[in-house]
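Weekly sync, protein design subgroup
Attendees: M.S., D.O., the rotation student, P.L. (late)

Item 1: inverse folding check
M.S. brought a backbone from last month's batch and wanted to see whether the design step gives back something sensible before we order anything. D.O. pointed out we never logged the input encoding, so this time it goes straight into the notes. Structure tokens as presented (409 positions):
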């Protein structure tokens, strides 16, 4: 069996954690390849909610967990998650790549500092230090996981750098000591480990964080995260051959959400938006912020499917659409009087894009039972398959692990 990448196709929060958990059984390991603790992956089992920020979502299926060198790692957040796991009587089987960029308290402070400098144009970052951590890696001013464990990195230049523009820098000593304890005995080479598993005939699941439209280069810049979110980044983010990427499953919500600033052509303001937000519990799993809510955007989805080479689709939260009377899908944008359904072309002017909608049969009041797809929902799924030219193989109709339905073998 081939490896599989699960990637978000919108602005994050598509339900990737739930889909990873659903699929994890078939794989030997679950691997995070990008982002950091800005992610919030939620899984609900028997009414209990688990939220992972750094620990791969395969934990609940007792899989080997790997955090690759493309991740910006905050050791203390990870420690908190490992502690929660221990409180449950569990122990994570975790390997952290020695080349992971670390997030120190300085990067978190810098994240907040830059947001303040931006004033009303703030990006609305999660303030988890993600952008600054990747930036500091590019400047070669931050230690990697292995550097901290081995004591082989001199932070003096970084500290002098930070002192030029930030006051009240905390003493890094306690952070170093605690972080070293978290990382010690857990670091190694994740790429080599994946290749060894593959060579032994076992496959792994790559768990994407964020979504395609938040990609640093291919998303809605500057309202994006600090690194790549696309599946194309898997081989580079992990140190494995391109041929090991395997299949790509895209995850999309049946509507759209976005946290933080930036253009959002299909945003719904007012009552319907509020209803979807409440029913869909659309509040950030990392920051608790209310998520902005909008209709499904086929223009963005087509772009994401094509760019990532998506081979199958998981559609989530269909049940929430049964709570609202209207049902629309955006099929094109109108920008300065011109219509386009090409997202790349629309990107530079996305803030001026007006959505062109197609009305769809409403789901309102339709009972979405587990393992049954009623007419209007079936209609939406088939419409998407036609438009996107990929099969919708999974449909999720509720937050419970059991509410995920397989459509094709
Ligand atoms: P998951 O994996 C939703 C957003 C932030 C902000 C922008 C930049 O749960 O889908 P950052 O802190 O990354 O520099 O913030 O990116 N963002 C997310 N939104 N889900 C996420 O992850 C996100 N990770 C970052 O809200 O707009
Ligand atoms: Mg999130």
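Designed sequence read out in the meeting:
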């Amino acid at each position: 069996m081939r490896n599989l990448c699960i990637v978000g196709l919108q602005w994050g929060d598509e339900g990737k954690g739930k889909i990873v958990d659903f699929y994890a059984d078939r794989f030997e390991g679950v691997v995070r390849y990008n982002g950091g603790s800005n992610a919030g992956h939620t899984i609900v089992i028997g009414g209990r909610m688990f939220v992972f920020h750094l620990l791969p979502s395969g934990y609940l299926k007792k899989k080997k967990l790997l955090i690759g060198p493309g991740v910006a790692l905050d050791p203390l957040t990870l420690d908190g998650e490992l502690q929660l796991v221990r409180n449950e009587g569990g122990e994570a089987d975790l390997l952290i790549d020695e080349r992971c960029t670390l997030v120190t308290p300085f990067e978190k402070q810098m994240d907040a500092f830059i947001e303040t400098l931006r004033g009303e144009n703030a990006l609305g970052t999660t303030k988890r230090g993600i952008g600054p951590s990747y930036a500091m890696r590019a400047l070669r001013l931050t230690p990697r996981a292995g550097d901290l464990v081995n004591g082989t990195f001199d932070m003096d230049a970084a500290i002098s750098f930070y002192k030029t523009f930030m006051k009240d820098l905390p003493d890094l000593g306690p952070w170093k000591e605690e972080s070293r304890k978290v990382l010690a005995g857990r670091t190694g080479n994740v790429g080599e480990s994946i290749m060894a598993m593959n060579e032994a005939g076992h496959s792994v699941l790559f768990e994407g964080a964020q979504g395609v439209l938040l990609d640093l280069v291919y998303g809605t810049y500057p309202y994006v995260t600090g690194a790549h979110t696309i599946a194309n980044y898997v081989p580079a983010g992990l140190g494995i051959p391109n041929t090991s990427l395997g299949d790509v499953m895209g995850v999309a919500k049946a509507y759209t959400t976005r946290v933080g600033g930036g253009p959002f052509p299909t945003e719904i303001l007012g009552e319907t938006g509020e209803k979807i937000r409440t029913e869909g519990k659309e509040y950030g799993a990392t920051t608790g912020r209310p998520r902005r809510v909008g209709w499904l955007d086929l223009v963005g989805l087509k772009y994401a499917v094509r760019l990532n080479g998506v081979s199958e689709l998981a559609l989530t939260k269909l049940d929430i659409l049964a709570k609202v009377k209207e049902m629309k899908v955006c099929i094109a944008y109108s920008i300065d009087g011109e219509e386009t359904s090409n997202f790349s072309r629309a990107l530079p002017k996305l803030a001026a894009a007006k959505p062109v909608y197609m009305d769809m049969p409403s789901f309102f009041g339709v009972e979405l039972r587990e393992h049954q797809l009623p007419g209007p929902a079936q209609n939406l799924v088939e419409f998407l398959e036609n438009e996107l030219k990929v099969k919708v193989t999974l449909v999720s109709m509720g937050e419970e692990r059991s509410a995920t339905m397989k459509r094709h073998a």
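Discussion: Residues 22 and 263 are 32 Å apart (CA to CA). The first helix runs from residue 16 to 23.
Action: P.L. to compare against the previous round before Friday.
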